[in-house]
Each structure stands twice: as structure tokens, then as C-alpha cells.
Amino acid sequence: MSESTEASAAESDTPATEDDAATAAPDTRSAIEGKGPATVGEIDPEAESDVERAARETPPGRPLRVDDLRKEFGGLTAVDGASFDVEEGSLTGLIGPNGAGKSTTFNCITGVHTPTSGSVHLYNEEITGLRPHEIADRGLVRTFQIARELGDMTVLENMLLAPKAQRGEALWRSVLPGARQSVRAQERELRERAWETLEFFEIDHLAEEYAGNLSGGQRKLLEMARALLTDPEVVLLDEPLAGVNPTLEEKLLDRIHELRKQGYTFLLVEHDMDVIMDNCERIIVMHRGRVLADDAPAAIKENEEVIEAYLGANV
Fold this sequence. Notes:
This protein has helices at 3-13, 18-23, 26-32, 50-57, 102-109, 132-137, 155-160, 171-175, 177-200, 216-228, 246-261, 273-279, 297-302, 304-311, and strands at 64-73, 76-86, 91-95, 117-122, 125-126, 140-142, 234-238, 265-269, 282-287, 290-295. The chain is of the alpha/beta class. The longest helix is centred in the middle third of the chain and has 24 residues, at 177-200.
């Protein structure tokens, strides 16, 4: 027997330790912990927790997964069994004709609507039916087709509303002398972050301007900047370029690509096909509440069903 074969045999005869159990792959951990034999492709449903099941079903590097999502409004079915996932660090496009169910899907993912059925998972945790702020706390935020700024507050004040776990939100910390110091220290830190983010989006010169006085494109930039102060992992963009002039559109796209390099994940709804085809690595096409196609831009362009339902012959 060769030395390498002897080494392999020795390793296979060595009893598993608790450390081995902590680092074992999910499909073998139950056997090491004494829950019975487990082999690849064979899972004991009774011994598997919800978290373990979600981890097994979620492809690696796919932080957002939507499974068989359905949303009904009375007799109208807006989303009809949509299923897709979003790759980590990607800019994924979500397209389709008006009424295809794109915005309703966004609303179901982010907690604005509770799905009639189906599930949404974020990093292996089911978030279906959670409230919007609970989903945002877990790292998924969105922007809207129409930017929702607080017009009677300045741009900087709008930004400072976004960060989570602000100490000053607790009344006792704002009143007690000893606690007020930590509140002020955090406020200084958050103000500095807000300025840095405004500079990143090149709207720092508008910091003291009332948000209601901004142009449509500037409001879109403010909304995305504010979303980033929540420390998200996944950002859903609902038509961020609608009504934006070409200069601001280019600036916004540049910032999205820069943020992708920093590890952010984006799901983008947009009707401008040039933007989608030139900037997204993958495109999901919805039609009548269902996912019609899910592929790379080049394949989407040639997909006959997609052309007939949405793109037309001139794409």
C-alpha cells in the first residue's frame, strides 16, 4: 500500500470530533451529531431545521430567492407563481410589459404586500410576510418609482433618518446626562457618514437644500443615497432612471456599478432596454405574473417568446 493510500485509510478510521461536527458539510453534520446516518442527496426531513432546509435549497452566492410567489387582489392575480433568485454582487434586470407583476413582486419581497402564497428567502432566512422595517433590518431595502423624500426637511436631515439603531431614538438616552454623550458621539459619526455618501453621489452641495426643491433626478439620487445608510446587502431599484436626464442617468449607473464592486447586490426594474441590455449580466422577464424567461442578455434578445410578449423585433 502506498503512503498516500495508508494516510487516507488512517483518516477514514479516525473518529469524528465535535470540531469535525462544527465544520462538516450540512448533509453529513446530522450523522456526526448522532442523528442517524446521512448521505449525499439523502436528508432526514424530521431532523432538518427550517434554517438548514433553506440553506440546502438556496444556491451558493444567491442571497435572494423567490419561490412560487403568488399575489391575488380579489379576483385579480397580479403575481402567479413567480420563482427566481438573484446572484450575489450582481446587477440583475427584471423586465416585462406594464401589468406583468414587477412592482407587485417588489412589494411582496419587501413586505409592502403579504403574498397570497409562496415564499421569499434572504440569505437562507424566510422573510415572507415580515413588515418592511423588519426586512430592511435584515439587509434588504428598495427604492420606488416615485422618489419618496420628506420635502419639508433638508437633504441632510433626510439622510440622517435612515441609519438603524440610533441611540437618540431612546428617550432616556436623550435625557440622562451620562447617556447624552454617547448619543452625541454617534450623531457626529452618522453625520460624517451621511456627508461621505452625499459626496459619493455628488449631491453634497445640496445638503442644506429642502428635499422638496430637488429635481426628479436629484430626488432619485437622494433616495438611493439614503437607502445605503441602512447598511443593506441587497437593493431593489424600481425604475430608478424614469424621468432622469441623460447626465444624471449616467451618474446613477456609474454609482450602481461602483457599489457592485463593493459587494452590493442589485435587482433592477427598468423599461429602458438599452440600459438593461448594456448593464445587467442576467435578465428575468415577467409576463402576466409569471417568469417567462431568465437568461443572459444575448439569449433574452433571441428568445422568441420574449420578443413576442415584450421586446418586439427591433431590440
